[in-house]
Amino acid sequence: EQIKKGNYDHFMQKEIHEQPHSLTTTMRGRLKDNSVVLGGLKDHLKTIRHSRRIIFIGCGTSYNAALAARPFLEELSGIPVTMELASDLLDRQGPIYREDTAVFVSQSGETADTLLALEYALGNGALCVGVTNTVGSTLARRTHCGVHINAGCEIGVASTKAYTSQIVVMAMMALAIGADKISTQARREAIINGLSDLPKKVAEVLKLDGEMRDLAKSLIDTQSLLVFGRGYNYATALEGALKVKEVALMHSEGMLAGEMKHGPLALVDETLPIIVIATHDACFSKQQSVIQQLHARKGRLIVMCSEGDATSVCPMGSCRVIEVPQVADCLQPVINIIPMQLLAYHLTVLRGYDVDQPRNLAKSVTTE
Ligand code: G6P
């Protein structure tokens, strides 16, 4: 086991630091001269382009990855994209039609609820697409077509490198689905350039390891942590909070910043730490205003912003700032989750919990 961990103490730590490599493997052979080639999808692109809606279905981190992909899939395809937690879809027996494309996202390809939802969608005649890390898994075999994320074996129960590879695969899917649109060609080219640069930027953001360990030290005894995000980074808030919850065993909630005034604001005081994700994108000024409102209520703020933005997000110098490299806006969730993964990892070690096998959790949940 120690050999597989290499120079790392835990699999989760190794898998976090492996991401420049796992993302390179995910993209290998798939980005060609300003276009994307996904062998597993190419015969079905026409059907997907004509579908009435795209439904993302998954559980846990895989659901969050799909949520991160939703805005750019909508933007590049022009097709409405809806989200389903697999268990909730099954509980409701929600309507799915022949004109729908259902995209199932699962690292293991064996999660019971996701597979049951797949059988349900197949029964309703939808085109079923799989996004999985596991070649030969039930998900890979039962879907009509799909894309392997090729992130390499993930052992830590808390998913890290699979999350970023899932987002990158869905970005490539969005580029392939939208490839027939002249109007978005420049945007697509910018995203493809952003994808090529991503492993290098991920290596840069990993240098925040020491800083995130220091932040973890300052949070070690807190009861609770809130994470506010919006737009491309709503998913980052949910996934960052999920990481802290599942491994550091600390109560943590990811919230849509746009909902702040509808309840969460009541929780704000000088003790509760709040992470606000405010990297540069179309929602930046709205996040600045969220920071001001939290500041006015004396919130204990930690702000994640783009490099060079520290003074504009925190003019009073009263919050702790995490500066991350800026990439194409829709790929920013891949960068922004990494400090959160590092924070969850260090909090877990400092609090003395089992990093790779959190209590009560399983890597793959194969029962309903
Ligand atoms: C379990 C794991 C999570 C994972 C979820 C979905 O809860 O602990 O890390 O995100 O299952 O798993 P899947 O293999 O379908 O992505």
Automatic annotation (TrEMBL):
Catalysed conversion reaction: D-fructose 6-phosphate + L-glutamine = D-glucosamine 6-phosphate + L-glutamate
Organism domain of life: Eukaryota
Keyword RNA-binding found: no
GO molecular function: carbohydrate derivative binding; glutamine-fructose-6-phosphate transaminase (isomerizing) activity
Keywords assigned: Aminotransferase, Glutamine amidotransferase, Repeat, Transferase
Residue span(s) of domain SIS: 44-184, 215-358
EC number in record: 2.6.1.16
Pathway: Nucleotide-sugar biosynthesis; UDP-N-acetyl-alpha-D-glucosamine biosynthesis; alpha-D-glucosamine 6-phosphate from D-fructose 6-phosphate: step 1/1
Protein name, per record: glutamine--fructose-6-phosphate transaminase (isomerizing)
